[in-house]
């Protein structure tokens, strides 16, 4: 157990913490991949956008990928690397803004690509198309970009040689928290469908969903595949992980406000699953709590609930060695990605504070939420 975990009583709660040492470990794994392949790795801001860590990330990563004007501007202002843009649909005003900020723009349809090439041929960005390879092994349909009737990308069988005129690259995103096996299947499908046309490209973005920093990820297989594509098609391979960068780097500290009983013991905490960690309800998944177990694994069982009026604002049932008490703190693990970027003020709950754990174990709080964070979003 890290020594910082024994001294959380002084922290404002709820509170996200990013561990600089664990982030460095992830980046070292990314360095290994980059050194072996000369591929580009860019940060998917939709998954991880804690700007206080960007100085650490910029030493390894090549830029960011943005899905909106705000993300693109954040990347341009704070990261100072290349800005890759993919938006499901772009209007004319956004197009001009993107063209001023982006190094790469991947259009989601042939119509969008044709329209904006006709509006202005003086493109600053390298143009790409997002394709739907029509094959995926994503664990849930809600998170499957290749599901039936998907709006994400151009179905691969619709791509013609003419569509690739004036196009520098292709982009696909078809993975979700997966190892290299599903990626190989997708790449084989793309080769079968597009063949020699791939040699006309300058780059290919293989998207995100790669669990590159997981101990079980088969990195050597990925290295071989990237180098094969580079040799065969003479193109730059780009990956844009979000979760892999912040994986196992984040914690979420909460304080118990009350303990009630309704057939089971329920610990009410100063958190909200729906407002602070919505993937718990959307995905869904069950985050781990430090020193806790599954239901009935340890002596004392508690439902852990949030402090909003949503009946389903429940994180899950956990077991503990001893009884919990009001004012005890709980520490959720692996909460750095798809949490801070997705928070809301539902019910007027405050946004969690954000802090950093230094390599020496010291904690510094960089941001504390206020009423004005809530009010400025309303009219």
Task: Describe the model.
This protein is of the alpha/beta class. The protein folds into 2 domains: 3-18 and 250-335 and 343-375, Lyase, Ornithine Decarboxylase, Chain A, domain 1 (Beta Barrel); 38-246, Alanine racemase (TIM Barrel, Alpha-Beta Barrel), CATH 3.20.20.10. It has 11 helices and 17 strands. The chain has helices at 20-37, 54-57, 69-78, 92-101, 110-119, 180-194, 219-233, 243-246, 273-276, 279-282, 371-375; strands at residues 15-19, 40-44, 63-66, 82-86, 104-107, 126-132, 154-155, 169-171, 203-205, 236-239, 250-262, 264-269, 300-305, 314-320, 329-333, 353-357, 363-367. Strands 1, 11, 12, 13, 14, 15, 16 and 17 form an 8-stranded mixed beta sheet that branches. An 8-stranded parallel barrel has the order 2-3-4-5-6-8-9-10, surrounded by 4 helices. β13 and β14 (314-320) form a beta hairpin. α3 packs parallel to α4. The chain starts with 14 loop residues before the first strand and ends with a helix.
